[in-house]
Amino acid sequence: MSNDSSRTGWYSLAFLALIVLVADQASKFAVQKFTQAGSLRVVIPGLINLVHTSNPGVAFGLLAESNSPWLATVLIVFSTAVIALLLWLLATGRAGGRLGQTGLALILGGAAGNVLDRALRHSVTDFIDFHIGSHHWYTFNVADSAIVLGAGLVVLELFRDWRHPTHERAS
């Protein structure tokens, strides 16, 4: 691949990560500005609610009850290291094929959105309450959605390459 096409690919991936970051922060800003903490609005009855919650812990509310003054700092440092690794993988072309690269760019944007929340507020704003009837999933946000979608794309590429070892990845 030529330098120009790899540079264009890198810019596209960086732009995707930036779009995720901006969409995440804009949606969290809107929730914080236009809803009260703890509020609930039904969007699709029996399926999706808009809630305004704050998660000082990690995914799925783990460590949310921790009283450690170091939790936010440790999570910020760890997340920043992950962001640096993702940037390095993408910038050096070590992120696999197109699915893997796109997946890592989505993860990068989502991780940046959540680490920005932690740096500014020591917690992450969550607001999407997905449920079927009375069975609720953990409340999440745009960044979390991008991270899950990105991880799915990475796994899909790994599975595709595992099932077809002679398959050449598109650059």
Can you walk me through this structure?
This protein is of the alpha+beta class and 171 residues long. The protein has one domain. It is built from four helices and four strands, in the order H-E-E-H-H-E-E-H. Strands 1-2-3-4 form a four-stranded antiparallel β-sheet. Helix 2 runs antiparallel to helix 3 and helix 3 runs antiparallel to helix 4. The radius of gyration is 18 Å and the shape is globular. The mean pLDDT is 86.
Summarize the structure.
The chain is of the alpha+beta class. It is built from four helices and four strands.
Topology diagram in text:
Elements: H1 3-34, E1 40-44, E2 48-55, H2 71-91, H3 98-121, E3 124-132, E4 135-136, H4 142-163
Antiparallel strand pairs: 1-2, 2-3, 3-4
Helix pairs in contact: 1-3, 2-3, 3-4
Essential attributes:
171 residues; alpha+beta; four-stranded antiparallel β-sheet; 4 strands
SSE succession = HEEHHEEH
Q: Mind summarizing the main beta sheet?
A: 4 strands, antiparallel
**Domain tally:** 1
> Helix coverage percent of residues?
55-70%
What's the tally of helices? 4
Which spans have pLDDT < 50 for at least 5 consecutive residues?
none
C-alpha Rg, in Å? 18 Å
- Spatial shape: globular
Overall strand count: 4
The largest sheet has its strands arranged as: 1-2-3-4
Distance between the termini: 7 Å
The share of residues in extended strands comes to: 5-15%
Q: Average pLDDT, to the nearest integer?
A: 86
Structural category is alpha+beta
